[in-house]
Amino acid sequence: MDRRNFLKKAAAMSVVTSLKNSQAAENPIPHRTLGRTGESVSMIGIGGYHIGTPSEQEAIRIVRMALDNGVNFLDNCWDYNDGVSEERMGKALRDGYRQKAFLMTKIDGRTKAAAMRQLNESLRRLQTDHIDLLQFHEVIRESDPERIFAAGGGMEAVVEAKKQGKVRYIGFTGHKSPDIHYKMLQTAFAHDFHFDAVQMPLNVMDAHFDSFEKKVLPVLVEHGIGVLGMKPMGDKIILNSHTATPTECLHYAMNLPTSVVITGCDSMEILNQALNAARTFKPMSKSEVAALLAKTSSAASKGEFEEYKTTHNFDGTYQNPQWLG
């Protein structure tokens, strides 16, 4: 390509980029407040696991396109795709993109040593000196709360890391049982500890079966804890029920008192679907909610479309107990 054609192409690309930035500025992604932290976070968040699916170049493009369009909440985890998800996100956050992001990742370590080691690995992979929100991952066992808060447990490492400036806020996640989430919260209260955020499945199926929405969500709202909704489509499994569309699934979760609804985006098409859902969201009326839940009631009754609750298919630490430490 000669110099003249190169300059023409560069100018055209600049115009396209400016147009995209202008469109994003005119129609930004709505933001909400993350509980008592006061942090402003996008109502839609980009799931970390799924950026391990496409090529590295496409994954970086997805993350940067989301940030350019006003999404600032990024989800990840130390164990996603053997660290590849964090490595890709770290590369995407170069060139000034880290400043646009509220970066969350998770660790599996239940002991102080394992938790600190995993946190330091995450910092290295993500190419950052701090994590905005660090969460204990897969709190899915009755024993998890006690292990995390025990002497020499993972919480000691995370609190120490917060004092060192490596972590700004602390939370936990889980997908198995609302009763275990409730136990984790009560264990924290007993230790005079207040989580900043909690992540859990919130979707059109959960509302009917062993429901986080009914058992955990009210506690989070009462205590000003940021609500992170995940699995709005149950990793696409809910869509197999043919009872709700992707946009209906996203809008239902957004209609709850969620700070962020985290959704996996493994292509630009799926990212644009999520961006459009956030931009078109309007609070649903009681009758609209009732109609959507009526469509999903029968399919949801036995947890068939919520395998993360009823099987070990989504339990990474069940398959790899050594991650717990």
Q: What oligomerization state is this entry in?
A: single chain
Global structural class: alpha/beta
- Poorly predicted runs are 14-22
Give the overall average pLDDT. 93
Rg computed from alpha carbons, rounded to a whole number of angstroms: 20 Å
**Largest sheet, described in full?**
8 strands, parallel, barrel
Portion of residues within helices: 40-55%
Strand content: 5-15%
Please tally the β strands and state the result.
Answer: 10
Order the strands across the largest sheet as they lie in space: 3-4-5-6-7-8-9-10
Note the gap between the termini: 56 Å
What brief labels describe this structure?
two-stranded antiparallel ribbon, 325 residues, 14% strand, 14 helices, alpha/beta, globular, 45% helix
Commentary on this structure:
Helix 2 (56-68) crosses helix 3 (84-92) and helix 4 (112-126) crosses helix 6. The termini are far apart. It is globular, with a radius of gyration of 20 Å. It has 14 helices and ten strands. The strands form two sheets. It has an eight-stranded parallel β-barrel, surrounded by four helices. Strands 1-2 form a two-stranded antiparallel sheet. It has helices spanning 3-26, 56-68, 84-92, 112-126, 144-149, 154-163, 178-190, 212-215, 217-222, 246-255, 268-280, 286-300, 307-310, 316-319, and strands spanning 31-33, 40-42, 44-47, 73-74, 102-107, 131-136, 167-173, 197-201, 226-230, 260-264. The model is unreliable at 14-22 (pLDDT under 50).
Question: Which helices and strands, and how do they pair?
Answer:
Elements: H1 3-26, E1 31-33, E2 40-42, E3 44-47, H2 56-68, E4 73-74, H3 84-92, E5 102-107, H4 112-126, E6 131-136, H5 144-149, H6 154-163, E7 167-173, H7 178-190, E8 197-201, H8 212-215, H9 217-222, E9 226-230, H10 246-255, E10 260-264, H11 268-280, H12 286-300, H13 307-310, H14 316-319
Parallel strand pairs: 3-4, 3-10, 4-5, 5-6, 6-7, 7-8, 8-9, 9-10
Antiparallel strand pairs: 1-2
